[in-house]
Write a structure and sequence with these properties.
Layout: H1 23-26, H2 37-40, H3 53-56, H4 60-75
């Protein structure tokens, strides 16, 4: 006779992660306006750096357009290059 193992089997826990989506595709935005710094601040961290697409969910195409828009906005002086209190 074989002994039965009476161990508890692990419980199957299903954790659903919220699917990320491209903001620009969902809103059907074709052009990112570099003259609108209030809109571009959404995609910057608190130190002024551009957030990566793995965090924001933007597609590669729009991430490149976003990068160009932020750089242009910084160049004409609407956004600072480095700061500690960007979102105030």
């Amino acid at each position: 006779m074989k002994k039965k193992n009476n161990y508890l089997s692990p419980i199957d826990i299903v954790i659903k992660k919220k699917k990320k989506y491209c903001f620009f595709k969902k809103k059907n935005i074709k052009y990112i306006d570099y003259k609108n710094p209030k809109f571009l601040i959404q995609f910057l961290n608190e130190f002024g750096g551009i957030l990566p697409s793995r965090i924001t969910g933007t597609s590669k195409k729009y991430q490149i357009l976003l990068k160009k828009a932020v750089k242009r906005c910084r160049h004409i002086g609407l956004l600072p290059f480095i700061t500690d209190d960007l979102r105030k």
